Request: fold
Amino acid sequence: MIQMRDISKCYQLGGEKVHALNKVSFDIGNGEYVAIIGPSGSGKSTLMNIIGCLDVQDSGTYRLAGTDTSKYSGRQLARLRSTHIGFIFQGFNLLGRLSALENVELPLVYQGIGRKQRRQRAEEALGSVGLADRMKHRPAQLSGGQQQRVAIARALVAKPKLILADEPTGNLDTGTGSEIMDLFGQLHTQGNTIVLITHDPGIAARAQRALRIVDGKIQQEEDQEG
Ligand SMILES: Nc1ncnc2c1ncn2[C@@H]1O[C@H](COP(=O)(O)OP(=O)(O)O)[C@@H](O)[C@H]1O
Ligand SMILES: [Mg+2]
Reply:
């Protein structure tokens, strides 16, 4: 699914050059559940942006689902993102004026899928995260955990090949975070490929495998019971 080879990325900050990623290489297979763990400033977000095709590396090769992403134009990358990748963020990133159902329908609107099918698939996705009885609610009328479930339903609705989550429990209390992690476990059991970015070893331990990143380098791979 993901093949990274010698991926490097530098930021120029004034006269300083920051080596955010330094020759990072790893593979993530179809159906795997992998955590990327590292301290603040280690390069996690930079790596996530490249995995999610939101940013491009300076050097090295990134193949996503078999294709070298450097071969795509900006427009093609946008299309790849909307069809292949479901994003989940720490801050949920829901639209406050839309209902849960309308938020979940949005990715399908961008894909030009008709109204009736959109509604049906969004209802299905919300049902699968346990929110069948909250479809008409707006984000402000939902708890943090429920909002993250809506965001997960939105990430799932286009049936992406890859689910990419950046600190998904970062804004939640421990109990609610644990429920969200249970949901990720279920999604993995159902065959989804999941990459989860975190600084929290307890969260990373819920994945099958953890890639540790320190100072822009993959330090070690940790196999764990999943
Ligand atoms: N836009 C940017 N401009 C300059 N430096 C940046 C930029 N984004 C990130 N960095 C630097 O790159 C390094 C990695 O950052 P980041 O990927 O955000 O780490 P993490 O997500 O693990 O906290 C840090 O030293 C950070 O200060
Ligand atoms: Mg970050």
Summary: The chain has a mean pLDDT of 93. The chain has one domain: 2-223.
